[in-house]
Specification:
The protein has four helices and four strands; from the N terminus they run H-H-H-E-E-H-E-E. By secondary structure, the protein is α+β, with helices and mostly antiparallel strands. It folds into two domains: 71 residues; 75 residues, General secretion pathway protein M, EpsM (Gyrase A, domain 2), CATH 3.30.1360.100. The protein starts with a helix and ends with a strand.
Length: 158
C-alpha cells in the first residue's frame, strides 16, 4: 500500500475498528518486547541463583581440598620403610585377602578383587595421609561383586 492509500483506508475505518487496530498494535509491541527483552533477562536472573549456589559449593570444596593439601605439606616426611609398612597395614585392614601388593624399588602395585567403592575411597584417603603416597595409575573394572583392578604407587624416596 502507498501512504495515501493507507491514509484513505485509515480514515474510512470506523472508530471501533481503529481502536481494535491500535490495541492489536500495542499488544504486538508488548509481545515483541517480552520475547526479545524481558523473558530472556528474567530467565537469566532465575538461573543465576542456582548457578551461584553451585559455584559457591564448588568453591567451598576447592577451598577444603586446598586446606587438606596445605596441611599434608606441613606433615613430616615419611621414610620408604614406614610408607611400605603403612601401605601393607592399610591394605590388610581395608581389603583383607581381597588384595595383594608387589613392591619393586620405589614402586608398588596393588591388585584388588571385589572391592566396594567405599572401601576404595577409605583406602585411598588412608594411604595418602598415612603412607604419604598416592596412586599414579589405576586400572579398574566394575563387576557384579565390586571393583577389580590394580593401582600403581610411587613410594617416598629412601
Amino acid at each position: 500500500m502507498k501512504t495515501t492509500q493507507a491514509k484513505v483506508w485509515w480514515t474510512a475505518l470506523p472508530l471501533r475498528d481503529k481502536m481494535l487496530v491500535r490495541v492489536a498494535a500495542v499488544l504486538a509491541i508488548v509481545l515483541f518486547l517480552w520475547l526479545v527483552a524481558l523473558s530472556p533477562a528474567i530467565r537469566t536472573i532465575r538461573a543465576f541463583e542456582s548457578t551461584q549456589r553451585a559455584q559457591e559449593a564448588k568453591l567451598q570444596q576447592m577451598l577444603n581440598l586446598q586446606s587438606q593439601a596445605q596441611s599434608m605439606q606441613n606433615l613430616p616426611q615419611v621414610s620408604q620403610a614406614a610408607a611400605v609398612t603403612a601401605l601393607e597395614v592399610s591394605i590388610e585392614q581395608t581389603f583383607g585377602n581381597r588384595a595383594e601388593i608387589i613392591f619393586n624399588g620405589n614402586n608398588a602395585t596393588v591388585n584388588v578383587r571385589g572391592i566396594s567403592a567405599e572401601d576404595l575411597s577409605q583406602w585411598l584417603n588412608s594411604i595418602r595421609t598415612n603412607a604419604r603416597t598416592v596412586s599414579v595409575q589405576a586400572r579398574l573394572t566394575r563387576t557384579n561383586i565390586g571393583w577389580n583392578g590394580s593401582f600403581q604407587m610411587v613410594l617416598p624416596a629412601q
